Amino acid sequence: MFKAASMRLLVAALLAAASLLHGPQAGAAESWTVAQLMQALGKHRSGQATFQERKYLAVLDQPVESSGELRFQAPDRLEKITLKPRPEALVLEGNNLSVTRGKKQFNVRLSDYGEVAGFIDSIRATLAGDRDTLERTYALHLAGNAERWTLTLLPRDTRMAEVVTRINISGSRGLLREIEILQADGDRSVMEIVALGQAR
Amino acid sequence: MTRRFVPALLLWLTFVAACAGVVSQTRFTADLSAFLPEAPTAEQRVLVEQLRDGMVSRLLLAGIEGGDAAQRAQVSRALAAKLRADAAFRMVANGEPVHRESDHALLFTHRYVLSPAVTAERFTSSGLQQAIAESVDLLASPLGMLTKSLLPRDPTGELMQLLERLDGGSRPAMQAGVWASRDGGRALLLVQTRASGSDLDGQQAAIDSLRSAFASEAAKLASGTDLKLLVSGAAVFAVDSRSTIESEVMRLALVSTAIIVTLLLFIYRSPTALVLGLLPVVSGALAGIVAVSLGFGVMHGVTLGFGTTLIGEAVDYAIYLFVQSGSAATKAGRNAYWPTIRLGVMTSICGFGALMFSGFPGLAQLGLYSIAGLVVAALTTRYILPHLLPAGFAIRDVTSFGLRLQRGVSAVGRLRWVLAGSAALAGAFVFAQHNRIWNHELAALSPVPAEAQAVDAALRSDLGAPDLRYMIVVRANDAETTLQKAEAVSARLQALVDGGEIGGFESPSLYLPSQARQLERRSALPDPQDLRARLASATAELPLPASRLEPFVEDISAARERPPLTRADLDGTSFAMAVDSLLLRQGEQWTALLPLRAPIAGAHAGEIDPSAVRLALEDAADAAPLFIDMKSESGQLYAGYLREAIMLSLAGVAAVIALLAVALRSPRRVLRVLLPLAASVLTVVAGLVLAGVALTILHLVGLLLIVAVGSNYALFFDSKGDEDAPPPATLASMLFANLTTVAGFGVLAFSSVPVLQAIGGTVGPGALLALIFAAAFAHTSSCLVPGVPAR
């Protein structure tokens, strides 16, 4: 029932959210490299954060806002619990994505979406700090320094690129602050993240 | 030729000619459902028939195994493309989105007559505000990605309503862009034949072209890849069982005829005698077919398969006649045997007669066939055959062979206590195991081989075909009324879904609402002027200005003009198949099926409480819904049939005993006849249980036939009630007669048709054991001179 395009977007957003595995500093290196970032991300077993998301859509006069919690649990469980404007629970675990909204529940197998299936690997790759797999799906660009960095993900897949132009993930040292997704149709969303519990 | 004989011969010839006439007009069927019990209620019977002719019987499930995922997907696509171009197939689904565009287009175009949310209330200012606010909020969710672009045309989110509702079912997994099994080892296709379920030839042709299309596509792959096609479905079962039965019946008849002819030639040493000996058999078989044809209107192939057993038994009478017609025999001597044979025929009739009251049409046919066959064979032997014997007719003198047999009988008699002991042991074993003897599954009666059933179940679960355990059925005389009834029931079911009592349900009215319901929804749509005014106030507080919703106003005014959706509009979408499989027409009667799904999660996960469903349906009593729980129905059904079979068997045995009591006029003699039969039955049951066979109703029927058929031999040993051993010639003819019967039934034990196998495997050994036990328990003389009583 999901259009593949929206699936791709969804997965991209999740992937971005999955990068919230921030934790203790991975050493304050002078030069902040993708390798170091990946290493820092790969160390975490679980984490919790609140999020606030704004979507700027051409069809609306004002951005739509939503807020809630993000939870990650090793090895591959990610939850996005929206509390406002309407409660919604989105759970990604293994190959399954379920969205529960009110009494309705949607279940999607990621592998059913051929060209998006690679993303499940990207997410796992991110969780595991597996840079090689991540680079198979995106071109990575890291800008800034350890105190204020921005990781840009550019989809390699052309069909994916028709929906998502780029994803900017910014943070400070091992702390994720913001995920920005730019869509090909000009709409964009910005998610601000505030960590709660520290990961082990 | 005596004067009395001429009318008899003329009568017989007329009879045979008439029979041949009827037989040439008889319709034969291979539909194995005749060996499934009839549904208990008229309603269920109608349902079963409709399912048989309806959509279900046209569906083929196919799986492609082997190779890698890409190769399987490639073949799946190529095969589907080939079949879609073939007129023999109405629908081919393999996961490719061939219908997705048209499905969505149809839903979107007709959303205002399809959506259950459309009411006059929803199009008031406050209703619109609520609906649009919800759609705006949805944009914050990832799900909003789906609705964003449609918002100006569908601000109330009607498409989402429809998609949510249609998305409840489990769908097959995907792999490389086509359906695949959950474990990823198979590509899957679902194919609908154009030929109906009753058109077996058409179905067979369709299955053949499916297989050959697969073979040619698989051959295009690089050599060394070995793909395999699995095909299942009602049509496959029907076609396979038809060809199985056709080949089996031929094979069984040939094998048993060959065995019996060999035996007869060995005994008779005369082709003339052989032909004469088979005359009663042929007359009997003709009479059997005629009786079934007249009684049932159609004859089952499996019933013909049992014809081989008839050969085995009917040929006995001729053996007795010929052996007694030896040069030493007199007419008087020959006639002395008739009472015993007559009694034997009558006990057989009692056994087969019990079958005539069976709930299995196949067994009832078998009963009628055997009775008619045996009576005619016996009469032919008694009144026609003696006159046809050439002057000086004699077969091999079996006296010396008979004398050897007498010694054998004495030897067996000395083993009497051993045999009695082993029979008692068997009885004790059966008693000890009495909880494990019976197979209580209705599926055990299924004519479909277990292996094929397993493949079918695997494909079905991979395809996420609904488990049709719980179903609600409504019926009416036209499609519109049926759909209205389905809607009344759907409303009740939706309440159960909302309450988490059931996971979901299907109904033809979800895809094709009744005209009345559609017009009702259409009339809820406001005219453009009103709508614009209402939108202005509805969106005042929302980030979505009314000016942006002009496409919505246009769509609504178009919807107000559009005629209601009809079945024809669904052509080319996947909803066409859904409606055709859930809304069935049979003559003047329309039936809607509403299968239920169990909840996936929550307090009632995986279970449906029938009482909750029944309670909810009370509010829809006007629709007269019929709630069917297939599993418990079939369980009760089976229990009922087992009870029926036990009653029938007991009645058959009681009839045999009563007959013996009247004929023998001595409780002691009756007991002496019955004892070997009881011993054989117990030994056969013990043997089957030891061999790991769980007994079904068909085995029970087999046990009844052991009593009916085996009584002949016990009667000969009891002959005249004195203590004499049967004369040598009689002994010899008994052994030959027994062997032909055992051959006739025994051959069935090697059949691959479960019903034949069960009965053959029971009666074959049982008849032989009956003879051995009868010989052992007979008061044979230790002295070898006949006539001297043993003391």
Query: Total number of β-strand segments of chain B?
Result: 13
Largest interface: A-B, 35 and 31 residues
Average per-residue pLDDT of chain A, rounded, comes to 74
Q: Alpha-carbon distance between the termini of chain B? A: 46 Å
Features:
heterodimer; A: 200 residues; alpha+beta; 11-stranded antiparallel sheet; 44% strand; B: disordered C terminus
Describe this structure in words.
The complex is a heterodimer of chains A (200) and B (791). Chain A is α+β, with helices and mostly antiparallel strands. Chain A has five helices and eleven strands. Chain A has an eleven-stranded antiparallel sheet with strand order 6-5-4-3-2-1-11-10-9-8-7. In chain A, helix 1 (4-18) runs parallel beside helix 3 (117-128) and helix 3 runs antiparallel to helix 4. Chain B is elongated, with a radius of gyration of 35 Å. Chain B is α+β, with helices and mostly antiparallel strands and 791 residues long. Mean pLDDT of chain B is 83; it is low at 780-791. In chain B, the strands form four sheets. In chain B, strands 9, 10, 11, 12 and 13 form a five-stranded antiparallel sheet that branches. In chain B, strands 3-6-2-7 form a four-stranded antiparallel sheet, with helices on both faces. In chain B, strands 1-8 form a two-stranded parallel sheet. In chain B, a hairpin with a 2-residue loop joins strand 11 and strand 12. The A-B interface holds A 1-3, 5-6, 9-10, 13, 53, 55, 57, 59-62, 64-66, 82, 85-86, 88, 90, 99, 101, 103-106, 109, 111-114, 187 and B 134, 136-146, 148, 151-152, 163-164, 166-167, 173-177, 498, 543-545, 548, 600-601.
